Amino acid sequence: MQLGLIGLGKMGFNMRERLRAGGHEVIGYDPRPEVTDVPSLAALAEALPAPRVVWVMVPSGEVTRTTIADLAEVLEPGDLVIDGGNSRYTEDGPHAKLLGDKGISFIDAGVSGGIWGLTEGYGLMVGGSDEDVTRAMPIFDTLRPPGDKADGFVHAGPVGAGHFTKMVHNGVEYALMTAYAEGYELLAAEDLVKDPQAVYQAWTNGTVVRSWLQQLLAKALKEDPGLDGLTGYTEDSGEGRWTVEEAIRLRVPVPGIAASLFARFLSRQEDSPTMKAVAALRNQFGGHAVQRISESG
Q: Do 166 and 202 touch, CB atoms closer than 8 A?
């Protein structure tokens, strides 16, 4: 099958390689000349015979909006656009309408797998019509992990369902990473435990907490036992925030996911205004000792 792929970063580049290895003809476009196959979106459209399938794999937000608007001008009725980035699901409806007004179909696809997807396959969560998803299945089948067709791929519902599902996936990911990290810190704090990495390595097989994320933490601890080469500063890319916002809208309690998001906020503070205020209050009402900053700093 022929595919146009826009965005050849860490994910898109590896997806192009996996699809080509699976026998598909992939023409990629990226602003960076060292990785692109064609010089422009217009050239990408010209290189693909109609009806075309074009996969967009660029950062969410304005870049995605601009790319889809540009595609609406260079593609033709009967073509299909797949947004595989981490767009917020609320943007999928407007994107589908913009393209639909031109006779162009739209699928939203949540993609999980990171840099390991090239060899292990990608988890795919898609939203769109039955007809459009069936049309793109040869691509999805090559990208997803091998094995049972019910594993690694789900047609979650109509347009928007794919990115909503991926949003919740990433919220769960936030909570899982925090739980594994808290467990590591607790193990490392106890002198009875001589090798926290060995514990996490042992947990990778036969235990109820084993998972790929847990295996990756065991790998990271083996490479850097004290994680001395890192700081605790941790960004969030948006999906965790969106998950909490949607949970509030739907009145669904997600305390674990919310706490993991706030833990990332806390990681970026050199000093906590909240805890400084708590220290001040304890001193005010009980005369409790506080640590003061000297004039010399």
A: no
Catalytic residue among 76, 131, 173, 223: 173
CA nearest 212: which of 141, 123, 85? 123
Does the global pTM surpass 0.85?
yes
What pLDDT, in 10s, does the model give residues 146-195?
A: 887 668 999 999 999 999 999 999 999 999 999 999 999 999 999 999 99
The residues pairing with 127 across neighbouring beta strands, listed in sequence order, are 108, 157
Q: Starting at the edge strand that comes first in sequence, how are the strands of the sheet with 53-56 ordered?
A: 25-29, 2-6, 53-56, 80-83, 105-112, 123-127, 153-157
Sketch out the chain's domains with CATH numbers: 2-158 (3.40.50.720), 167-267 (1.10.1040.10)
**Residue 173 known to be catalytic:** yes
Catalytic residue among 91, 166, 239, 246: 166
